[in-house]
Amino acid sequence: MITRRSLALATAGLSLAATARAQGAWPEKPVRLIIGYPAGGPTDFGGRLLQDPLSRLWGQPIVIENRPGASQVIASEAVARSPADGYTIFLAASTHASNAAVYARLPYDTVNDFTPIVNIYASPTVLFVGRDSPYRSAAELVAAAKRDPGGMAFASSGNGSSGHFALEMFRRRAGIEVTHVAFRGAAPALQEVMAGRVPATFSTLSGAIGLARDGGLRPLAVGGPNRVEVLPGVPTLEEAGLGIPDTSPWYGFIGPKGLPRPVVDRIASDVLGLLRDMSIARRIAEAGGIVIAEEPEAFEARIRRELAENAVIAREAGIRVE
């Protein structure tokens, strides 16, 4: 006699078996990697770096889809609405954890609609001035800003960007008042600083490494936990006496909510294995990045922690994106 309970158990068993088969065979088709910024930037760099090695490991092509706009909100929404089958992955930048603090409304829940997979690398923000700037250290810049409260301008790549958050942390810790000038992207902000029309900016090292190498920009301090290999003579903000341990944006793989754990573990394990490859680690370092190699639980903890920290900074600084 078939009862309602036996039918339910049988249905559940078939469902579990189908799920197990699907997970065991993953991937059986191309994997879509969504990136919320244009090609050529520091987020896109990570995707291009891992695209071919992961394709070889998985035996399937990885198709990169750049979907820029609204500080990657458009890309985040696309991922949140994708099936949780492992065939859509999001290469997220750390603005994923700051957007909730600056946007009045988001079309997704930053924690509950996603599955953190692996945090790949970070690119520290760097305090830059132009090559002809009179300032040779962060201390000199701070002293000048204190002599003229509100008179010194700082450029950023946009309202609510990682550089803007770094500036607000710097401003509060240094006890200075400055004028924030938001540009539409890092390139115009850096051009204004190089031209001397804006005195300073916080910009990701990976996005400004070429300009720093050719002397167009002068780095004064690194907003990361340690000095970086490509700028060995430049102190950290903490070494400069400002007590700011880390403002580094990160870049990591995130999936939709409910991504099966075997798929999460497979992706994380393969990425972590590639990050142990010295040739890949070297390319990240040469681009101004720092390997993080953070597993799913640590990555999720970081996102939750930064959500809380960014909410405080945005509230106190009045950072808001309409």
UniProtKB/TrEMBL annotation:
Source superkingdom? Bacteria
Keyword presence, tRNA processing: no
Please give the Pfam families that the UniProt record associates with this protein.
TctC (PF03401)
Any coiled-coil regions, as ranges: none
Q: Which residues form the signal peptide?
A: 1-22
Q: Which InterPro entries match?
A: BUG, Bug_dom1
Asked if the Swiss-Prot or TrEMBL record annotates the protein with the keyword Signal, the reply is: yes
Q: Which UniProt keywords apply?
A: Signal
Task: Give the protein family.
Answer: Belongs to the UPF0065 (bug) family.
What is the protein name for this chain? Tripartite tricarboxylate transporter substrate binding protein
Q: Which organism is it from?
A: Neoroseomonas soli
